[in-house]
## 1
Amino acid sequence: MIEVKGLVVKRGRRVVLDAFDCEIPRGSVTGLLGPSGSGKTTLMRAIVGVQVVAAGTVTVLGHPAGSAPLRRKIGYVTQAPSVYADLTVRENIRYFGSLYRISARTSDEALAAVGLETHADQLVSDLSGGQRSRASLACAIVSRPEVLVLDEPTVGQDPVLRDELWNHFRRLAADGATVLVSSHVMDEANRCDRLLLIRQGVLIADDTPAAVKQSAGTDDLDEAFLRLIRRQEVTA
Ligand SMILES: Nc1ncnc2c1ncn2[C@@H]1O[C@H](COP(=O)(O)OP(=O)(O)OP(=O)(O)O)[C@@H](O)[C@H]1O
């Protein structure tokens, strides 16, 4: 589904991803974890095809990342919400839906998926930060992309909403979508099928949450990541 081989990305003078390899299977939720500045957003940008790369290949659904056939098949939610502040939530979602020839009625289903039905007719400029993030998420899922790349989509959401959003991600994957989600929250990491742990641009774990915990010798995912990071510091 997504195959990254020998990826090297430089940003400024810094090598942000260094000979990075990973494979992300179809119909799964994969969590992307790592310390701040480790290269998570950069990897996501390379998968979506908006990142200049110095070497290596990124293949998505059999096509080079960023190529024309993928444009309608990938949804990307950045950390900064990308919605029109002077439109209502419903207008935003219907607008993005219309770009994919999706009817207003079908577009409105995305409102429920992110729990914004009661704010449908409110201007985005009047929403709270967490609500605005959910509006942005709704605009990305309205076209039902085959690949959904989400950069910290649950930041600023309360536990009930986070739970609902994760249930929704799981449903999308069960319907065949490939979902890549970055997060700093370990209870979310536990809900992924697979985890990619990055540190300083290098992949230090690529496994199921259970296997990551087992290889670190602890039942606690927070502790497992700390141990794997320290182990890598010793060998680096
Ligand atoms: N436009 C840029 N020019 C130069 N360096 C950049 C640029 N954008 C990011 N970087 C650097 O690239 C590295 C990786 O950044 P990236 O945003 O991928 O990290 P991240 O793992 O997503 O971090 P966070 O968890 O804080 O969002 C960081 O050291 C960052 O300072």
## 2
Amino acid sequence: MAETPLHHSADPFLDGEHSGHDPAVPSSDISTCGPDDGIPVVDFDILVNGAADRRAKAIRDLGRACEDWGFFMVINHGVPEELKEAAMETFMELFSLPEEEKAEYLEAEPMDPIRIGTGFFSVADGVRYWRDYLKMFAHPELHCPAKPPKLSSSRCFYLSAFTAAAGATIAWLSGTLLQSTRRRREACCWCSPRQSPRAWASTAVEFWRPWTSSRASRFSSPNITRRTPVRAARAWGLPAHSDHGFLTLLFQNGVDGLQVERDGRWRFAKPLPGAFFVIAGDQLEIVSNGRYRGALHRAVVGGEPARMSVVSMISPCLDAVVEPVPELVPDGRGLEFRGVRYRDYMEHQQSNKLDGKGALDFARVQRDIAPEN
Ligand SMILES: O=C(O)CCC(=O)C(=O)O
Ligand SMILES: [Fe+2]
């Protein structure tokens, strides 16, 4: 049986051939961006276990990172390297399975708990993105394809639980702009903690109970799937977008390709060894009435080996209505967003073309524009 060519037969989407909402990947206006260039670095161990003064500073830095960048790296998160590697390998195996082994998930709808496909949502994409993906609802209940069997093994489960716990902790702490604990909990729309943060690693599964979805992506290079050499070194893996959840945790297989926008400039993001990237999502922007920004990011592919990323998206539970917290709205400033059920928001974002931060308009309060005379 042949390996599944998840990409369809149309021409690949290469530099300079990209039209529509997103500019072609430019080679000159991208700067590389690592810790020395200012990407905030958050030390998770200090955040949860540090002495009071160091912890207070780490929490302040986290708040600033969410405000200034909507993007940061997390070190000392406690997720074992072998767990990540084992999960990567298993996801790679899944992508290599023959099509018939995963057929039941290929036509899945955006809100189905397991979905396998290409691009973002190929029905709506309109163009080619060089990405194969598996999307799964992951926490509190892990949904995953039956094959390869290792996928439902405790390793993948624990990976998802660990990242959910770490992400939820960060999300909760990043709510330090909210004055009271009760408010924080309400704003995040998930259950109260059952354990002190110090116990997070041993009780990852039950620590927080956010709703989490996971996805694995393989960004394969057009160079190895076309007979003629490509004109440009890079092609699109995913166009510019912000994520629909609260916070996204991302780790990759050592191949870079994630770009993040800040102050109108795109930067290549290079992680410190072993670090996660964390990307603020639309729900954080909504709940903070725009104070924290969902970060605009995109992915490019090029060359070998193929890039793999695994993402855990930390979200409110599906039926929570997410809205700005009143005390965050300064006097005289109106609400930027209305309350929207997270399930509806997610379905909207997942069913349409990726369009920068366009999905947020679904929740944005439309102001009357004064008629011109
Ligand atoms: O893997 C990447 O670089 C980006 C993935 C991403 O943005 C997403 O899955 O939403
Ligand atoms: Fe994303």
